[in-house]
Amino acid sequence: MPESRHESTSPEQNHVLGHDERTPAHVHPRGHLVYPATGVLSLVTIQGSWIAPSNRSVWIPAGFEHQHRAHGSTDMRIVFMDAELAALLPAHPAVLAVTPLAREGVLALTDTDRRPPEVLARLRRVVIDELVAAPEQPLHLPEPADDRLRAVARLAEQDLSSSATLAELGHQVGASERTLSRLFHAETGMSFPRWRTQLRVHRALLLLADGVSVLDTAVACGWANPSAFIAGFSALVGQTPGRYQRSLRDGRP
Fold first, then answer.
1. Domain named HTH araC/xylS-type: which ranges (predicted)?
2. Selecting from 1.10.3720.10, 1.10.10.10, 3.50.50.60, 1.10.10.60, what CATH number does the domain 145-250 have?
């Protein structure tokens, strides 16, 4: 995590971040939605990372220290929620699907037009109603705490194209497959294969944002063939890699 710490009570915000620009670690006293109208945003906490392309939003409850990282030129929109509305959303950071109506609501809340408070309140309610109608999106990559798991995670991150099994990675770090499997479920809530898939999709989102082709991204992230990549990516992101990359290039979701 970065060294600085910042608290803000500012209202809705609109920030344009350059590629790979990062905010300092900070805390807000109110829960808030962070939406990349263009580009891709990573949210990083000590519990792991969440990633949101422009058809997703990150919900951050009050009091969670975090930082943002932009991938590609990113138009970051921030909408704060009062306690009543925040209570309708998860009590932990989460990636939420953004419908076209929710997107327009967020854009209206964060544009430069001055609207009466009652209009803004109705817009927030519409956004919340749209977000809670869809399940939480599986774009969270938990950060293991156990030293053995962290060693396995680093090996997986260093070579995404490797098909090494958990038993083979465990041999390198001095832990049994059974022990590591149990720990992965206990600490991340998912199996190692699922965790590695999440890792690969996170990396694919970033490579595609950098302009790497779909084929080269599939190879770099360890998929056996482009069809498998498209299927795995689409299941988590909600659109194909090609459509996602075109949306970044065109500046729209």
1. 150-247
2. 1.10.10.60
